[in-house]
Amino acid sequence: MQSFQxxxxxxxxxxxxxxxxxxxxxxxxxxxxxxxxxxEVEGEIPPELQGTLFxxxxxxxxxxxxxxxxxxxxxxxxxxxxxxxxxxxxxxxxVRTEGFQKEQKAGKILHRGVFGTQKPGGPxxxxxxxxxxxxxxxxxxxxxxxxxxxxxxxEPHRLDPQTLETLGREYLDGVLSPGSAFAAHPWIDPGxxxxxxxxxxxxxxxxxxxxxxxxxxxxxxxGKVVRQSVHSVPGFAFIHDFAITPNYCVFFQNxxxxxxxxxxxGLRGAAECITFQPEQPTRILVIPRRASESMQILETKxxxxxxxxxxxxxxxxxxxxxxxxxxFPEVEPGSDFREVDFASLAPGHLWRFHLDLAGKQVxxxxxxxxxxxxxxxxxxxxxxxxxxxxxxxxxxxTGNAPLQAILKVDLESSDRQLxxxxxxxxxxxxVFVPRSGYNEQGLPQAEMTGEEDDGWVLxxxxxxxxxxxxxxxxxxxxxxxxxxxxxxLKHHVPYGLHGSFTPAYFGRxx
Length: 510
Fold this sequence. Notes:
This is Carotenoid oxygenase family protein. The protein is mainly beta. The protein has helices at about 20-25, 100-105, 120-125, 260-265, and strands spanning about 35, 40-45, 50-60, 60-65, 65, 75-85, 85-95, 140-145, 145-150, 155-160, 165-170, 185-190, 200-205, 210-220, 225-235, 245, 250-255, 255-260, 275, 280-290, 295-300, 305-315, 315-325, 350-355, 360-370, 370-375, 390-395, 405-410, 415-420, 425, 430-435, 455-465, 470-475, 485-490, 500.
């Protein structure tokens, strides 16, 4: 979320360890697709690191020179970094969605974007056009033998994990229909009680309106939907992520208002019609994963949450750790996402929310005051009590800034470790890869083997000096020692969104 910044004034303004012009250079399109072994390596790739890191994000920030209004409107580009025997292979390819192919053929923007990109021709050309392009640009996950590129407003696209070729839209054996939403933040329960301890993938879909329907899906390791439930929520809900525990799905219904009129009249994108309501509380929706139980709704102080680190149950309560902002970062018409005055804007912080279901009370506690985003935890600890969280973070301890560091938070001892790429490096989401912790099918194990931080943290880092990107491997036990290996790519990769790791190797055979 290099561009998730709030229109709220920060209380402290630290000295910037970065140059805004350097940061802006990471927002350039990468139209070329590559396929090569990574030969330029500083350090040594751990030979035990076996598998494939998949990353997704907007690869095109313009269409034939016509700039997009916001990077979140950019076409999805998948990167695959495959590790085997101390070597690595890189491949990237655009998701060949229907809209992508049409626009590339026409050489111009043909579709409106959710975050404000409009077709040429002004309001008359955009009015009452609700045909949004499925851009497949947010997450990519390998599950049930299928590689799926996800965008929360429509169905997934299935890709060949070896070549990244687009195979078509994925409807989960008919469970989804054309245009059905399937969110971009699935969680893998490493040991589902309803499936005799087998892993399952849990995801959701949102259908907003005057009231909002939330559909929860649970998929077994074969990729089949084994449970599905629909829940109606009063009011409009703009929800990007959620969290799971063994018994619950937890959603934060952020206090926002959506006025569809400017969107319908072609004056604004849909996200530009969302306004934050600070006088309203944030509502927390607790949905049982067993259909026989009822949803509960609790309220807490007004705020806005994009991403959750984890949730767990303990002593009859639910605890959920989330990156929370004071307000929704409203997208302004006519603004330039490359021109961000970070120092004057308030950051996101990591908070813990304690949900007392019996008393219908919510308490919250600040965990991390450094500007942070993109939390990640050990896959065997998803939905369980855990000790370590890894986040993208600002270099400075206070104020707002681009993400230039990887932060490790010890929730038991309150210790912190920080590796920073400042002043010329800008990091993406950290992905934790355990040294062990996968079963024979390559799925997370419910029973963790080894220490919780025994593994590696993988992240993409844009090097503004070289105008290229690196794949950085950190020892998750000790970030302070710096990279175990730094793999220099032959090009840059635009700032991305989310990714996942599978122990299956999908690189080129040597």
